[in-house]
């Protein structure tokens, strides 16, 4: 049975690699199109520069009345800013007058068409946010205590990094003086630790975050998935002892882990490595899209992206499926299913955002959201 699973997963991996490498470059006629696109970009940049100079000479002062939606903030009125001023200047004024962090401040403007409060982009000017009138009313909200995205990522991935070795090297947790681990268990623990160390590396040196912070309480919500499901859940049961027939059926089922032959362990580890490296490669492509503007959306091209909108999620899921097949433990499958479900939701949202942002330009690429050929 494990031979069939391994053969099937290898077939999926080989097909994925062929599709990624065979489609990661555009045909020749796309090359000229891209060159034309870059030429248009240069012309557009020149036009934008001229337009910016014209706007600077035509800026008008704006009377701004900011009303608070939060009890912890007081409103503010000012006529010292122009429509060419950056919104972040107003955010700084509000933050200073209330002695709050700028990351807690969110400015919105009521849109009469959608009948919703639309957040302002603080990195852009008032004009670029669609505010051209000489008198405007804005709303401000206190987002509460904030924490940086990078800090959250580092903390949530750190859980499994320390919990897997803890369960593996401290048999007293299970009431044993020593545990003889199988090769499959050793492979599984090393693979899990390497995965989350890769995540830590990406957090520090690869990922670029469009937002600086998130609400502080999200730290516990986000960390629960990794500390509980991956660290405590998968780590506890995968690194545990193998209970004999003298113990209850439930206990044996909870701590069951495959004891695969060496060839199967090495084969599955090879597949897992392919998925991890591919995931890392797609993360590098996404990071390089945002070298200058961290909030600007762009269409990613290259390894995996010619076929999928979110190949990074696809390879992440593939890696955890391989891991779950290797260990055969229920906790690993629960973690894999939970992660895959969440990534599927994210992929659908990102796919729709690409279509909404780039329209026909993206539609003609005929990319599936997360799984090849499943549109």
CA-atom Rg in angstroms: 26 Å
Lateral arrangement of strands in the main beta sheet:
2-1-5-3-4
Low-confidence stretches: 24-57
Name of the CATH first level of the largest domain: Mainly Alpha
Helix content: 55-70%
Count of strand segments: 7
Which fold name fills CATH's third level, the topology of the largest domain? Answer: Four Helix Bundle (Hemerythrin (Met), subunit A)
State the end-to-end CA separation: 31 Å
What are the secondary-structure elements, in order, as H or E?
Answer: HHEEHEEEEHHEHHHHHH
What is the CATH architecture assignment of the largest domain? Up-down Bundle
Oligomer category: single chain
Main sheet characteristics: 5 strands, mixed
Count of helical regions: 11
| Mean pLDDT rating | 86
Structure description:
This protein has 375 residues and is α+β, with helices and mostly antiparallel strands. The protein has two domains: 84 residues, Phosphatidylinositol 3-kinase Catalytic Subunit, Chain A, domain 1 (Ubiquitin-like (UB roll), Roll), CATH 3.10.20.90; 217 residues, Four Helix Bundle (Hemerythrin (Met), subunit A) (Up-down Bundle), CATH 1.20.120. The protein contains eleven helices and seven strands. The strands form two sheets. Strands 2-1-5-3-4 form a five-stranded mixed beta sheet. A hairpin with a 4-residue loop joins strand 3 and strand 4. Helix 1 runs antiparallel to helix 9, helix 4 runs antiparallel to helix 5 and helix 5 runs parallel beside helix 8. About 9% of the residues have low confidence.
